[in-house]
Amino acid sequence: MAGKPVLHYFNSRGRMEYIRWLLAAAGVEFEEKFIECPEDLEKLRKDGNLMFDQVPMVEIDGMILVQTRAILNYIATKYDLYGKDVKERALIDMYTEGIVDLIDMIWQRVTCPPDQKEAKISMIKDRTKPGDRTKNRYLPAFENVLKSHGQDYLVGNRLTRVDIHLLELLLYIEELDSSLLVPFPLLKALKSRLSSLPNVKKFLQPGSQRNLPIDAKQIEEARKIFKF
Question: Fewer Cβ atoms within 10 A, N terminus or C terminus of the chain?
Fold first, then answer.
C-alpha cells in the first residue's frame, strides 16, 4: 500500500496551495516537510530531488514530481477530476489558466514593494468587476460560463479540478474585498455549493492543512530561503 503523498515547500500558501487544495478535495491525506532555511532547500537540490532546482516538489506513488502544473495534472487524472474526454480537459485547462492569471496578480500584491500595493489592488479589482471587457476578464467570464449551460459545475456538470481552483480564487478575492463577489450570483452559489462538499468543508475548518494569508514574517522568511 502506497504511503501518503509528501509535500515539500515552505510553510505558506504559494504554488503548493493549489496542490493542497486538490488533494484535500479528492479526500487524500498528505504529509508536509517544510523548508525552513536555505540549507533545507540546498539539501533537496544536492540530493537530486529538484529537477529544475525549485519547489513545489511532491513525493507520490514512488515518484518525485516537480512543476506545479505537472503535479496538479497527475493528481487530477488519478482522482478523476480532469473531465471525461479530451474536449473537457481542454476547457478545464483553459479556465484554469485564467484562474492562475488572477491568483498570480493577488500574490504579486503580497510580495511587491509597499509603494506599489495600492496600484496592484486597484488592478485586481478592475479585473474582477463587471463592465469594460478590455479590463474585466475574469469573474464575469466565469459567471457567463455558468449562465451559458445552467449546470452546477464549470465543466461536464460534475466536480473537476477547475471548480476547486476557482473556489480557491473566490476565497482569496473574498479576503481582499467581499463586495467584489456581489455582482456574481452564480459564482456565489458555486462557492457555497463547493464549500459544503464533505472533503472541502473539512479542509475549510480551523486546524486543517489549509494556509492562512501570508504575513510579513513569512514573506521575510521566504526571501531568506529563496533569495528573492
Answer: N
Residue 33's region, left for phi above 0, alpha for psi from -120 to 50, else beta, is: beta
Nearest to 89 by CA among 156, 137, 167: 156
**Whether the model pTM is above 0.85:** yes
The C-alpha cell at 40 is: 533545507
Q: Along the chain (228 residues), what's the average pLDDT of each consecutive run of 10 residues?
A: 88 94 98 96 96 96 97 98 98 96 86 81 80 69 95 96 98 92 96 98 96 84 83
- Give how far the C-alpha of residue 107 lies from the chain's centroid of Cα atoms, to the nearest Å: 11
Nearest to 14 by CA among 68, 72, 74, 94: 68
Q: Take residue 58 and report the three cell numbers written for it.
A: 511532491
Burial of 17 (0-12, 13-18, 19+ CB in 10 A): buried
